[in-house]
């Protein structure tokens, strides 16, 4: 264990993907870095554990890591991670008709939508053709755009509510349902602005980089980042909860991979009163109720093509999914929730013993919910995979309270680090020219509560670390 009385240039609190990225960036710039993590292992949402039975490895939170491949923060790192791609990135089963599939090939996907092929090419396809410059622009919303014309073309429909875009531009139930399932990752009412953008971006990534998993579990990505940090002289302390900045050794820069609630608790009176009040008004989004299963065999999907998909969106038509997400936004528990399911073994059989499988799924619930959604989730799976319960060997459930106990950043079960509503799209955690910086010299926030928001992309950590380095260099130049 590192000695807290040692001297460090930078201290990072929290080891989610953003905290790890911040620590690596500072260390590669020649700074002596200390990373402090409350849990016994690093990773935050990237942890992998045997939640059900021995030999069955489950990702506690994130599994599909498309953003890690697309993000400019990770693209330049030579990380020791083996990526595994499912044959089909995503599937969307429908009642009484074949499932809609999102393939790596955008043209194949467009053709499968029949009358909506032209609309898919004009929206999602155009963004795919714009390439990484567009993705880089979208993941750095407060920086000069690398692809201004493509961003403007993407932004026109992206600003719209998903329900409006789907009804005005698409005609088939398949295309509408696929976009609704993608947009529902935002955990917003699909009648809200920006939901089209969330859905389109995820579809773009499915075509551009795929929706892969890390072989062996998402913990592999966290371990690779920790290894890179250690190679550059960084030090890591796990199993230590930081309750006050006073516990930390002196450092020129302190970067907090924490949400505003934890920042206020840790920084306390060091924060100016006005800024502290603004942090306390930060809005958290809905929570999730998550289930993991150990299965004796594959899920018995009614449509066999779904068995090839890494991610499966279960909710039926766009209208059904929209109703479910509206219920959650209004503080209600949907009777037939939208269920996001992931079958990692399609790409990575090492997650379970030979012939067996793992599956996880979650549905959205009001923040802080204490309602058991197990029956509702399994009913949605059985709807499209009759006999599913017959292959279940063991199950593990986590509601919002259990998720928050494992990771205090998941406030009320919110896995997004705060509501993704338009008012907090770039104003995370408050509106500032440099939202990663607090008014306290040398104190930064680098979590998903800062731009560009949630997902495993590391951009919050990269932006905060780069800002800290620039300010350090300017301060040194003035001496």
UniProtKB/TrEMBL annotation:
Segments crossing the lipid bilayer: none
Pfam short name (any one): NAD_binding_8
InterPro entries for the chain: FAD/NAD-bd_sf (IPR036188)
Domain of life: Bacteria
Name of the molecule in the record: FAD-dependent oxidoreductase
């Amino acid at each position: 264990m590192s000695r807290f009385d040692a001297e460090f240039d930078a201290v990072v609190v929290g080891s989610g993907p953003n905290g790890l990225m911040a620590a690596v960036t500072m260390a590669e710039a020649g700074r002596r870095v200390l990373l402090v993590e409350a849990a016994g292992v690093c990773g935050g949402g990237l942890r992998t554990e045997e939640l059900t039975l021995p030999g069955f490895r489950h990702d506690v939170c994130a599994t599909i890591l498309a953003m890690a491949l697309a993000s400019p923060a990770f693209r330049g790192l030579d990380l020791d991670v083996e990526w595994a791609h499912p044959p089909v990135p995503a599937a969307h089963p429908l009642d009484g008709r074949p499932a809609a599939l999102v393939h790596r090939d955008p043209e194949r996907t467009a053709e499968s939508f029949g009358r909506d092929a032209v609309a898919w090419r004009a929206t999602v396809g155009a963004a795919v053709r714009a390439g990484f410059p567009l993705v880089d622009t979208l993941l750095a919303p407060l920086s000069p755009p690398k692809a201004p014309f493509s961003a403007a073309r993407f932004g026109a429909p992206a600003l719209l509510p998903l329900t409006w875009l789907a009804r005005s531009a698409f005609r088939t139930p398949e295309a509408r349902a696929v976009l609704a399932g993608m947009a529902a990752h935002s955990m917003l009412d699909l009648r809200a602005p920006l939901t089209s953008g969330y859905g389109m971006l995820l579809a773009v990534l499915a075509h551009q980089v795929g929706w892969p998993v890390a072989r062996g579990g998402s913990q592999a990505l966290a371990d690779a980042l920790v290894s890179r940090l250690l190679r550059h002289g960084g030090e890591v302390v796990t199993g230590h909860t930081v309750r006050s900045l006073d516990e930390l050794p002196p450092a020129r820069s302190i970067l907090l991979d924490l949400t505003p609630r934890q920042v206020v608790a840790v920084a306390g009176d060091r924060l100016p009163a006005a800024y502290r009040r603004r942090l306390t008004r930060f809005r958290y989004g809905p929570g999730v109720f998550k289930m993991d299963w150990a299965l004796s065999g594959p899920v018995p999907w009614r449509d066999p093509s779904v068995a090839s998909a890494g991610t499966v969106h279960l909710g039926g038509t766009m209208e059904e999914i929209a109703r479910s997400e509206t219920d959650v936004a209004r503080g209600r528990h949907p009777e037939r929730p939208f269920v996001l399911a992931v079958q990692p073994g399609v790409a990575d059989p090492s997650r379970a013993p030979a012939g067996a499988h793992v599956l996880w799924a979650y549905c959205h619930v009001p923040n802080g919910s204490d309602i058991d959604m197990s029956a509702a989730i399994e009913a949605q799976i059985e709807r499209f995979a009759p006999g599913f319960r017959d292959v279940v060997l063991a199950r593990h459930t986590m509601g919002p309270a259990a998720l928050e106990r494992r990771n205090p950043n998941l406030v009320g079960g919110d896995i997004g680090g705060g509501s993704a509503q338009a008012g907090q799209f770039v104003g995370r955690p408050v509106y500032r020219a440099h939202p990663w910086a607090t008014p306290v010299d040398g104190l930064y926030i680098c979590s998903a509560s800062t731009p560009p928001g949630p997902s495993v992309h590391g951009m919050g950590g990269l932006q905060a670390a780069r800002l800290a380095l620039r300010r350090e260099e300017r301060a040194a130049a003035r001496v």
